[in-house]
């Protein structure tokens, strides 16, 4: 993603890499949902949740597993098709956070898993407040690769060198969540650290699904991924690695 006002146009690239997104993207630890319940002041069990920018349903399925009554919201037909294949039984509605297709006061939680940065906050926050019941909450979270780990930092440096002006990582998450407090919401946050054991091949699928690569032409993308695969195998000759994450959660509650 970039700081350009037009960076959201890259979101259209996800449909073509929906399978890689489903296979390669990380999930979320149980601790995230424990913290979400704590900060939101309610259990997920029985909560009416709108999971916006649901993608292929990675977070949606985990919310449902905690007993939430989830409706997924996703604008991309390609991602939606993968969602229906991966998340049977969970309702899916086509829409965006900037214009939620739901009635006023119809939800307890509006969640954005790895997705709030694709909205226009000046439109998305009033929409979330509109559909929330009193005391409801907006929750946003991001898995960010932990660049204090040398190999992760090196990967980011390679991406930045290969994709100048296109790759910037996530930078400061608060530039996305800083809009909540001025809107009169009670904001709290948490940082969690976790890791997953994966293969180099799976990490390449994860990278393929990232907007800064998915939006490239196929030839340059394949060449860059081949170089990245070689660099990772030089670091991890057996093809296996531990991928560390910092998980940033922000919960903004409406007045009761």
Written overview of the protein:
With 256 residues, the chain is α/β, with parallel strands linked by helices. It has a domain at 7-146 and 170-195 and 245-253: Rossmann fold (3-Layer(aba) Sandwich), CATH 3.40.50.150. 37% of the residues lie in helices and 24% in strands. It contains ten helices and seven strands. The chain has helices spanning 18-24, 30-40, 58-65, 77-86, 121-131, 150-162, 174-177, 200-208, 211-214, 218-235; strands at residues 48-52, 69-73, 92-93, 107-113, 132-145, 186-199, 240-253. It has a seven-stranded mixed sheet. Strand 2, helix 4 and strand 3 form a beta-alpha-beta unit. Helix 6 (150-162) runs antiparallel to helix 10 (218-235) and helix 8 (200-208) runs antiparallel to helix 10 (218-235). It is globular and about 55 Å long.
Give the overall pLDDT as a whole number: 93
Strand fraction band? Answer: 15-25%
Q: CATH superfamily membership of one domain, which one? A: Vaccinia Virus protein VP39
Briefly note the structural class of the backbone: alpha/beta
Keywords:
256 residues; alpha/beta; Rossmann fold; seven-stranded mixed beta sheet; 24% strand; disordered N terminus
């Amino acid at each position: 993603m970039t700081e350009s006002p037009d960076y959201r146009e890259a979101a259209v690239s996800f449909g073509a890499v929906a399978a890689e997104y489903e296979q390669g993207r990380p999930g979320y630890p149980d601790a995230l949902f424990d913290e979400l319940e704590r900060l939101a002041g309610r259990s997920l069990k029985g909560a009416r949740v709108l999971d916006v920018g649901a993608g292929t349903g990675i977070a949606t399925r985990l919310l449902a597993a905690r007993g939430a009554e989830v409706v997924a919201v996703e604008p991309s037909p390609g991602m939606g098709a993968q969602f229906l294949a991966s998340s049977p039984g969970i309702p899916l509605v086509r829409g965006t956070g900037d214009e939620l297709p739901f009635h006023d006061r119809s939800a307890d939680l509006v969640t954005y898993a790895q997705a709030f940065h694709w909205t226009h906050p000046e439109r998305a926050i009033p929409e979330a407040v509109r559909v929330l019941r009193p005391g409801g909450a907006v929750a946003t979270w991001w898995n960010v690769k932990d660049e204090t780990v040398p190999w992760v930092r090196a990967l980011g440096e390679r991406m930045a060198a290969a994709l100048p002006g296109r790759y910037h990582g996530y930078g400061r998450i608060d530039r996305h969540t800083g809009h909540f407090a001025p809107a009169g919401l009670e904001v709290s946050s948490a940082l969690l650290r976790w890791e997953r054991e994966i293969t180099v091949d799976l990490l390449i699928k994860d990278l393929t699904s990232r907007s800064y690569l998915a939006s490239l032409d196929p030839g340059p993308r394949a060449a860059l991924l081949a170089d990245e695969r070689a660099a990772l195998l030089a670091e991890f000759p057996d093809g296996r690695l531990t991928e560390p994450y910092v998980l940033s959660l922000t919960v903004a509650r409406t007045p009761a």
